Amino acid sequence: MILITGATGTIGRLVAEQLADTLPLRLLTRAPVRAAALWGPRTEVVGGDFDDPGTLRVALSGVRSALLVTANPLSPAQDVNFVNAACAVGVQHVVKLSAQAVTDPEATDLITEWQRENERLLRASQLSWTLLRPRAYMSNTLSWSRSIRAEGVVRAVHGTASNATIDPRDVADVAVRALTDPETHAGRVYALTGPKALTVVEQTEVLGGLLRRPLRFEELTIDQAKCGLLDRYPSAIAEALLESAVRLHLGAKGHVHPAVRDVLGRPARTYHAWAADHLDPFRV
Q1: Residue 83: closest CA among 41, 128, 37, 42
Q2: Where does the chain have alpha helices with state H?
Q3: What whole-number distance in Å separates Cα of residue 213 and Cα of residue 205?
Q4: Which residues of the chain carry a pLDDT beneath 50?
């Protein structure tokens, strides 16, 4: 039995879609009725909450491998609860979604330190583990869809800074390998990037070419970016994301790693390929 957390999110959903028809699969969610309606009879859906250790022990009982995706650095006990529950019920292997920023000594923001502590926690446990450290997802550019449709504009900070973003499908493909073949991937750490670092300006050009529509880029000031983030996130998270943007500007996110090719035996997908498959949200 494999358990997936975050099955309604980006990576968890993609992993679950791959495994739902091939292996016994259990999805952990805080909204089991809604998830069951979404997934139908292909999977087992169980209710549970990272903040409730008892529900985690029930959900993890009989599980061999688990994908751990947590998303709230303001609730650091969630990973602790999950790892403790997994150890208590005999889970063998955990594939943990982390972040590439943990390798950067200059990255000291809240989100990165939270992920570093989560990694330390898992490494120190009795569990077998695999760590996935993706760079930012190409799908994050879906946040531009509204302004592209309405104005033909992409707005962001540091538009000429390169970022080796990755297609979420590649992260999911690596996660599936690690979940289904833990003996091969135990103790491995995978830095996951796309095949080429691109700037936001270059991504805007890719989208414009695919849409056959002229798009323009407008640079946001830090204050403008901060206001936008504060509309969506608590202040502590917004500040962490702004710190991350500074490291982008300094060139910390442009390095390309070969792990996708090494694990999957094929190149990582390009931004052009991702965008070509996800054009509908950007169309007028």
Answers
A1: 128
A2: 10-19, 32-39, 53-60, 77-89, 110-124, 145-151, 168-180, 182-185, 200-211, 222-230, 235-249, 259-264, 271-277
A3: 10
A4: none
Measured CA to CA, the distance from residue 86 to residue 186 in angstroms comes to 16
Task: Give the whole-angstrom CA distance, residue 156 versus residue 137.
Answer: 15
Q: Are 62 and 1 in contact (CB under 8 A)?
A: yes
- The two structure tokens encoding residue 68: 């751990």
Residue with tokens 């005999």: 90
Could you tell me the two tokens for 82?
A: 């999950």
CB 218 within 8 A of CB 153: yes
Dist CA 223 CA 157 (whole Å)? 10
> CA distances (Å), 107 to each of 56, 68, 171, in order?
31, 22, 22
Instruction: Identify the sign of the CA torsion 149, 153, 157, 159.
Output: positive
d(Cα 59, Cα 27) in Å, to the nearest integer?
A: 9
CB atoms inside a 10 Å sphere around CB 106: 12
pLDDT over 70 percentage in the chain? 99
How many angstroms separate the CA atoms of 236 and 17, rounded?
33
β-bridge partners, 65:
2, 93
Q: Check: CB of residue 129 under 8 Å from CB of residue 91.
A: no
Contacts of 9 by beta carbon, 8 Å cutoff, 6+ apart: 69, 71
Which residue in 250, 257, 236 sits closest to 100, CA to CA?
A: 257
